[in-house]
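Contributing: when you submit paired examples, paste them exactly as shown. First protein:
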Amino acid sequence: MDSRMPHASVEASAQPLTDEVLGSLRDSFRGALIRPADPAYDQARRVWNASVDRFPSVVARCSGTADVVAAVRFARDNGLEVAVRGGGHSVTGHGTLDGGIVIDLSPMGGVRVDPDARRAWAQGGAVLGQLDHEAALHGLATTAGTVSHTGVGGLTLGGGYGFLARSRGLACDNLASVEIVTADGEVLIASETRNEDLFWGIRGGGGNFGVVTSFEFRLHPSPPVVSTGDQFFDAADGMAPLRALAAFAADMPRELTTNAGAVTVKPEWEMPDLTVGSAMLVISWVYLGSLASGRRIAEPLYGAGRPRVEMAEEMSYIRLQSLADTSQRQGIRRYWRGSLATTLSDAGLEAFLARGTAPGDPAPLWNGELVSLGGAIGDVGEDDTAYSGRDAAFDVLSLCSWEDPAEDAQRLAGARHYADTMIPFTSPRAYVNSLENEGEARVRAAYGPAKYDRLVALKRRYDPGNLFRRNQNVAP
C-alpha cells in the first residue's frame, strides 16, 4: 500500500541526517527528535494500519505551533520529504514515510471548550475521544467519526462524517476557523472572514495546504441518549432488506443513520446463533434519541425479511462513539476504498451483496459497507467547500482487516476487485478519506474538474513546491 503519488519539485534528500544537519532544528525545537538509533524509535514510527511499515529519518514530536514552524522550515531548507501525523489513522499511511521527516502532532492533544459560546478548540494532534469527552462535560457535541482514537485533523480536513453528520453536517461544516502553518513556515488563521480562499480549500481538501495546528469547532446540544439496532440476515436472504434500506434512506429522518454491512462471520464475534465463516448481511441503524423512538422510526427497515439475530440497545452518546474502538485497534493490517453513490439500483445492490464473488463461492475475506449520508450534509452548497458529492446518499466501501502478512496478496486482490465491481454503480465523486492511493486522475475525478482546478490554484499559492504531498495530492 505504498504511495504511488508523483513527487513534484521538492525532492527527498539523499543527505543523511547527521548530528550536524539536525543541529539547526534542535536549536529551535522543544519537543523530542527521535531518530533510528533511539530506543523510542520503533514505537514512534508506528501507525494505526499495521500494513504500513516505514522508516523515517526523524520523527519530530511537536510540543506546539512553534515546533511545527521549525520542523516545516527545516524540511524545506534541507529538501526533506514531509509526512504529517495527527492520530495516525490514514489507512494509506500518509502519516509516515521512508526517509524524510514525520511532523508528529500527537503531543499536541489539548481541547478547550467555551460552553457559553458553544465553541471547542482542538489542537492538531487531538483525537476524537478527547473532543467528545470535553464537549460532553457541558452537554455539547460536534460531528466526529465513529472511532474515538481517530485524529481530529485527518478526519476533518477530508470532510468528516459520523453519527451526527446527517443532523449537524460534516465535521468540516462545523469548523469556525483553523490555525495553519504553510509551506513557507508562516502561521495563518483561516476562517470565513480571514484567508477565505484557504478556509474553503481545507474543508475537504485534506492536508494539501499546510499543517493545521488548531481547529475551532461549533458545538451543538448533545443527545441525552442514543439508540442502536442491528439485524443479521443470511446473505442469500439479503436483497429484500437491502431494497428496504435503499428506499428508506432517501427520506428518513435526519436523526437516523443507517449502515448495511456485507460481512463474513468471525469467531471473535462470539454469536452462537451465527455460523463462523458464513456470509451475512447486517442492517444497522443509530438514532439520536430513545430506543422506543428509534425503533418506531426505523420500522421501515423491519419486516422485509426474517433475521437470524436481532438486537437493539440504548446508551450514552459517548459510549456510542467508542463502540468500535476494540475492533479498530492499532496493530491490525487494513485496507479500504470507497466511492459515493446517489442511488443504488437492484443490480448495484446485488453487486454489493456478492462482494465480487460468483454464486457458490465461499464467503470472502473482505467486507462491504453502505454508510448513509444525505440530510444536513446536502444543506451546504456543492461549491461552498472543497468537499465534493453533497448529493450522495451513500459512501460505498470495500474493506478488510487481518493480522497475518502472508494473507496480504489474497486480501488486497479480493478487496480491490470488489471495489472495482462497484464502479459502474457509483459516482466518480468520492470522500477523499475513503480513497486508496490511486493517482492524480482519481483525485481529479473525486473533486470534479472545476473544483480540482480551484484546488490547484490554491496549491500554487500556498505550497508551490508541493512540500505537503503525502495526502490525496493536488499537485501545483
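Second protein:
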Amino acid sequence: MQFNVMQGYPEHLVMIAENDHGSIGVIRFDATKGDLMTYEASITIAPEARGMGMAAIILADACSYLPDFAIHAEIRHDNIASRKLFTRCGFDEIGREAGLLRYRKEPRA
C-alpha cells in the first residue's frame, strides 16, 4: 500500500491510500483552529475494501506521518466499527457529548 499525499499543509493533509487495484481509502487531517499542534482525523474506506482490516493499516500508517502532533477524532456513538478502529490504533476516548465520542492520540514522546 502507498499514499498519494495531497497537501494543504499545515492546515490540511489529505492522503489517498492506494494498492495495486486503485484507491482503497482516504484519510484527512485538519489542523484544529488556534492550535497547529493538533489535528482532527477523518477516514473513509472504499466499500470494496471494507471488512478486510485495511482501515487499521491505513489509519496507523497515516498517523505515522504526524508523529509530533496530537490527533483527535469525533465518532458517532453508534459507529461501533470506527470506535474499535480508533481504539485499535492507539486513540483513547476523552469525552462524550451530544451523541459523539471524542478520541485522542498523543504525540510520540
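If you have annotations for the second protein, write them as plain sentences, like these:
Helices lie at 54-63, 80-88.
The chain has two helices and seven strands.
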